Amino acid sequence: MNIGKFARSCGLSAYTLRYYEKIGLLSSISRTSGNHREYSEDDIAWVAFIKRLKETNMPLAEIRRYAVLRSQGRSTESERLDMLVSHASRLEEVLRQNREHLKKLHEKIKIYQRSIKEKKST
After folding, report:
1. pLDDT, mean of residues 70-91
2. All domains of the chain, ordered by start, with CATH?
C-alpha cells in the first residue's frame, strides 16, 4: 500500500512516517520500481507497537534502540525482552503513583461533598 493509505491505516501523517523512516524506526520499507514506498500489514503492526511505546512514554531514543535491535533479528531477542521488561516496570510504577494520586483526589472530593451537604442542611 502507498504512504497515503498507510498513513490513514496507522492514524499518522505521511510526514511522521517519513520522519520515522529517517530516524530508523521504519528501516525495512520496500520500494516499488518507481522508488515509491510500499507498506505491508506487518508495517502496520510495527507502527502500532511504536505508537503504543510512545503513548506509554518510552523515550524515542529507546524506541530507536529497540528498532535497531529488531532489525538485527532473533539474536537480539533477549536484549529486546530486557528493554520491554524494564519499560513495563517503569509503567507499573507510574500506574501505582497515579492510583495513589487518584485515591487522594477522591478523598478531597469527599471532603468537599460533605462540606457542601452540611451547608445545605443548615
Report:
1. 97
2. 3-121 (1.10.1660.10)
